[in-house]
Amino acid sequence: MGFKKSDLIIPSILTVFCYVVYPYPEIAMWSIFFMASYSAIANDSIQTIGTFIASNSDKKWYYLWIFMGGIFLITVTYSWYNYGGDISYGRLASKGLNEAPDNFKFLQVFAPVALLIMTRFKMPVSTSILLLSAFATQASSITSILSKSFFGYFIAFFIAMLVWILTTNIFEKFKNSKPSRIWLPLQWVSSGALWSAWIMQDMANVAVVLPRSLNYDQFIVVASFIFFGLGLLFYLRGDRIQQIVLEKSDIIDVRAATVVDFIYACLLFYLKEISSIPISTTWVFIGLLGGRELAINLRKKNGNYKDALKMIGKDSLSAGIGLIISLILAVSINENMRNELLSLF
């Protein structure tokens, strides 16, 4: 995993910091936001901008940053202006979270640090379960969330298998040819649309601790911090968790990246339409990449389906460990959720 001293030093310092500030609501609120905004976007970068980074590795990092950062500013400003200062597109209110917390527990402040640690160890995590559930005043049906998430994983897996079983030979035929000029704008448009859709749905995860109606100064602080945090993420080329994308077959090809983003966006729209139950989009994306990888290795003459299965198992195990840790933290913080789960037994 490329273990470094900073993997323990930085989280240790942040943990002590969390313990010191959690009794002070105003300081704790902004501390949670600053840590959660970077850690959540860094972890979810594999599913929103991961293929974009991979397929544009030959571009200057600041071109990618300005493009995606600009989409972020436009998307979040629209919500702030049209939803009375709310940057979550009304999702917090729809979940019964009409007011920001006025006091905090230590584990609530620590939650984004846990997310940061898991990101450093390349564990894709459901940020909705880890961050949003930690502050919920009403218990969510966690079994429904998990059931829909696993349904999303399997439907993404099999759709990806079907698509790439049909198209792998086509991609292989043109693999060594230079992509047509039309593919680059198509990929940027599809990635930008996917990124904007993620912001609309998951900005609630980092805004849950903030006032529901941000004034101008608060909005500038929030938007600026995330904008420049994106700059750091692009400078680091997605950081360590980006490896989950980079190890997949031919994902740096702009044509493959465009198809991945397009199918993923369609899947998220479908899953959003069939029910209002929240879903871990991370599991959908892992399923999409897994099905694609297996299909490619089954169709290639020199493919090795055993290596593909091993990679799928590794990704699923990492996501599973992240999910278990997320659930433990969420249940430890949220008494309603804990009582709901206990009632099942």
Describe what you observe in this structure.
With about 350 residues, this protein is an all-alpha fold. The chain has one domain (about 25-335). Helix content is about 75%, strand content about 0%. The chain contains 15 helices and no strands. The chain has helices spanning about 5-20, 25-50, 50-55, 60-80, 90-95, 105-120, 125-130, 140-175, 185-205, 215-235, 245, 255-275, 280-300, 305-335, 335-345. Helix 1 (about 5-20) runs antiparallel to helix 6, helix 2 (about 25-50) packs across helix 10 (about 215-235) and helix 8 packs parallel to helix 13. The longest helix is centred in the middle third of the chain and has 32 residues, at about 140-175. It is globular. The protein starts with 5 loop residues before the first helix and ends with a helix. The model has no long low-confidence stretch (mean pLDDT about 80).
Q: Which stretches are low in confidence, meaning pLDDT under 50 for 5 or more residues running?
A: none
In DSSP terms (H or I, runs of 4 or more residues), the helix count works out at 15
Residue fraction in strands: under 5%
Give the helices and strands as they follow along the chain: HHHHHHHHHHHHHHH
Mean model confidence by pLDDT:
78
Radius of gyration: 20 Å
Overall number of domains = 1
Structural class: mainly alpha
- The termini sit apart by 38 Å
What's the quaternary structure here? single chain
Main pleated sheet: none
**Number of DSSP strand runs:** 0
Measured as a percent range, the helix fraction is over 70%
Shape: globular
